[in-house]
Write a sequence for this structure.
């Protein structure tokens, strides 16, 4: 889901020429809970002019949103990486930093898929071996 959010942000910036708060508004309408609520809160907070930067607001709201999600260690930090610091004002630099995060998240996902595949193979092998052991014990 984090990869999808990054891809949608990139699309909104690239083709919709939207600002980051506007991107959050558009994404909040397309995503389910808990992301839609967090993104709408970001948009509303940025329009109330409370003095916080977009980066601070985005990180705070998304950290609260992702607190209860079953993410692997480091996924949240990787997702929020382009939003830490002072950020970039122009769309090209925003896209570049989002592309880097997308690449990192994709690499992590591929690694997790390989790990899951290996664990499945090991479970099948252990099941077959335990079946043989039971057969030998019973004979």
């Amino acid at each position: 889901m984090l990869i999808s959010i990054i891809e949608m942000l990139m699309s909104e910036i690239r083709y919709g020429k939207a600002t980051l708060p506007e991107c959050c508004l558009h994404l909040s309408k397309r995503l389910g809970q808990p992301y839609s609520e967090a993104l709408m809160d970001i948009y509303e907070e940025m329009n109330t002019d409370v003095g916080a930067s977009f980066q601070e607001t985005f990180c705070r709201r998304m950290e609260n949103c992702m607190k209860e999600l079953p993410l692997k260690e480091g996924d949240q930090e990787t997702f929020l990486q382009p939003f830490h610091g002072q950020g970039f004002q122009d769309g090209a630099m925003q896209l570049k930093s989002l592309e880097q995060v997308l690449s990192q998240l994709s690499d992590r996902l591929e690694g997790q898929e390989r790990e899951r595949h290996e664990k499945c193979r090991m479970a099948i092998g252990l099941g077959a071996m335990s079946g043989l052991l039971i057969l030998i014990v019973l004979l």
